[in-house]
Amino acid sequence: MEGLRRKLYDELFVGAHPDGRLTLVNKLLIVVILLAVATAAMSTERGLPRAWHERFVVFEMVFGTIFLIEYIARVFAAAEQPGEGSAWAKRWRFMRSPLGLIDLAVVISTLMPLITADAAMLRTLRLVRVLAVMKFGRFNRALKEVWGAVTDRADDLIVTMALAGMLLLFGATALYMTEGDVQPEQFGSIPRALWWAIITLTTVGYGDAFPITPLGKVFASMIALSGIALVAMPTGIIAAAFSEAMQRRRDQRIDEMRQHLERLDEIDEQVEAKIAALERTRNPHKPRK
Questions:
Q1: Fewer C-beta within 10 Å: the chain N or C terminus?
Q2: Domain limits at 215?
Q3: pLDDT at 143
Q4: Is the pLDDT of residue 19 over 70?
């Protein structure tokens, strides 16, 4: 029983495996979770035939059974977690942990459609479960690199955001002054004009509000052109920071490999010295005549 429990712990708990990567069981669970999310999304489409909705109910039962078995297995294997306490104390600690609560929420969200017909929002928690599985695995370092790239250039990004705020306020004020009397519903105040400034500066342009006066069009053209440059600025800053972080990671790996090779060279020298000593022991020098 203890061998089975240890095997389940190594397979289910990300980070327990010696190589620290996602195991085959966790990879299969991710596939099942994505399929369950797709099923939950498709089940909200009323235009599909009734036969499809009946199949979705069957799929939900299958997914719910899989997640329930997974949750029970995780609770059972949680006794193998390092730390003090009895087996049941460790299991209770896992059940109260964020990952354990997410697992329980996934089981409830999957089985909820069997109880109520409106559970689409609750079923989206499976996406959180995917992120929870991947967080502690091999993708943890990549996420840290992305976050480190953002924090390293925090000052530059803050300056960019400040410029964006100033440009938004300038655009909203300019359109309020030029278009406020002509289109009071869209530009009758600075907060109303701010909506237009946001969608224009981000190059979205829904088309629900646009200037019609010549001076308003001039200001709108200036703001639209400025928005292209302003969107490119943070993108370039983050890309450069991420590239530097990746270069540091590559340099670190090279240093680790170099240190590993140096340790191997030391081991080789020690082995050669021991072999030479053994050879001298086996073949002592003959006495001179």
A1: C
A2: 149-278
A3: 65
A4: no
